[in-house]
Amino acid sequence: MKNSDAAQIMNLAGRDVPVRIRRNARAKRIILRIDNDNEGAIVTLPSRASEREALLLVQEKSDWLLSRLEKLPRKIPFEDGAQIPLLGEEHVVCHDPDLKAVAIKAENTIKMGGRPEHLARRLGDWLRKEAKAEIQPRAQTMAAELDRKIGRITVRDTKSRWGSCAPNGNLSFCWRLILTPEWVLDYVVAHEVSHLRHMDHSAAFWQTVAGFDVQVEAARAWLNTNAEQLQRYG
Known about the structure:
6 helices; four-stranded mixed β-sheet; alpha/beta; 2 domains
């Protein structure tokens, strides 16, 4: 059986729960975990396990699964009236169909133009551009301090990493960093730029990060605490 990209819907105590089943030849046992993106479950199967066994496990662990799903932060769709923490400061999204510009940031509002059905996509695109506009000058300044050159900077919607540095000097960042406080964003940029000097997490690497006068431990703790919430936007 191939991995199932489309989720099956299981009714657990009156709640419809999407369940994705995946195979992993290296798995030693059946593994059940929460699917944060779809507010459901992912079951990983070893080679010899059957789909029926996967569904039985979901049924057996339904109390645990439903309890965990109830604790997930609610999704925050990009729509008129949504509250977005731009650089950690709450902004209200206001749709203005007469607005000629794509978006205008004014005080604690983000005014969005265009047709209402395109608002979510346009806001997502705008936030990615804002993220790059905040990250790029920071990264360039920090790289210059290390006498290093950056290749290319890209902004993506990554789930497991806030940033990465390639051996050729290309840097990549998660666009959701635009939703974090500036001091958290500064730490992530400093972290990735420091990899231009040390492609590891040695003591020398962390000394380089600290040299940028960023709040290393506090920022890491903030990201660990708020990572799940940040994934709920959009």
